[in-house]
Design brief:
Radius of gyration: 19 Å
CATH topology of the largest domain: Rossmann fold
Strand content: 5-15%
Bound molecules: nicotinamide-adenine-dinucleotide
CATH architecture of the largest domain: 3-Layer(aba) Sandwich
Number of strands: 8
CATH class of the largest domain: Alpha Beta
Distance between the termini: 39 Å
Structural class: alpha/beta
Number of domains: 2
Largest sheet: 8 strands, mixed
Order of helices and strands: EHEHHEEHEHEEHEHHHHH
Number of helices: 11
Strand order of the largest sheet: 3-2-1-4-5-6-7-8
Shape: globular
Length: 282
Amino acid sequence: MKQQKIVVIGAGTMGQGIVQVSAASWYPTLLFDLDHAKAEQAKDNIAKILSSLVSKAKLSEEQRLQTLALITVSSNIEDCIGDIIIEAIVEVMEVKQKLFSHLENINQPTTFLTSNTSSLSITELASGLVHKRRFAGLHFFNPAPLMKLVEVVTGPETSPETINALTDFVRDVQKQPVTCTDSPGFIVNRVARPYYTESLKLAEEGAADIETIDNLLQATGFRLGPFRLMDLIGNDINYAVTTSLYNAFGHEPRFRPSRIQQQKVLAGHLGKKTGRGFYSYD
Ligand SMILES: NC(=O)c1ccc[n+]([C@@H]2O[C@H](COP(=O)([O-])OP(=O)(O)OC[C@H]3O[C@@H](n4cnc5c(N)ncnc54)[C@H](O)[C@@H]3O)[C@@H](O)[C@H]2O)c1
């Protein structure tokens, strides 16, 4: 078992995956969610995934038991004391800022505070903190257990020690860290934006239906077509990222959020996590 304790806040799509990654590399890992049932459910989901890996001979029974034993869950924020804290809650600036202020108060000044945000400014997230030097973005991709890349995002006051500690952690959980400075969408989400926005425009214009667009792009080598990918990411998250880039770039038309995706969000058709998005998942 590793010495450093990891705390993951938010038991949704990303939090669950990050907890699995962390515990599988022998870090004692606490998963916190406001909703205790969600945290418990996330641990159950991880248990199922680990069992399926054992049945496919990709994991030993001993590794499964050790990984599960390292995961604890809580809905009491006062339990969120650790060495590295990874926040993966709703993509709303004020909610995240309030959470980080609280985490800073209850943790040692040596604790690294990180956000898995896809698009919010790391600089602004840290603006209310006393010790901004220990704050950074730690952007895992979905699904976290499978995706190798992690963006380590530096704010203007993030210290080199913080970046070193976080890149060491990322390597230790068998991922590839890429360091970048704080800018809208960081690297991947900015470069990837046209994949979604142009596909949404094609569908809006009636140029092709979503299945045709997905199949065509998959045939050219993409692992998932844009609509299947948006459903995997969550339409609420994907829409929030596009909106955030649109605002950050002074409403440049190339980042304009899509009306049909907005409708999906308003209707609660968020994708796989709600059973319905661009496709149905029954
Ligand atoms: N979904 C993706 O593909 C993806 C990829 C990379 C990064 N991200 C980022 O990760 C973060 C989480 O995204 P997600 O898709 O896992 O979201 P999600 O909607 O699946 O889960 C969010 C979780 O946070 C919990 N929560 C909300 N407010 C909370 C609070 N104040 N304290 C504790 N828990 C709270 C909710 O109960 C929920 O379980 C976002 O910042 C998002 O931008 C998402």
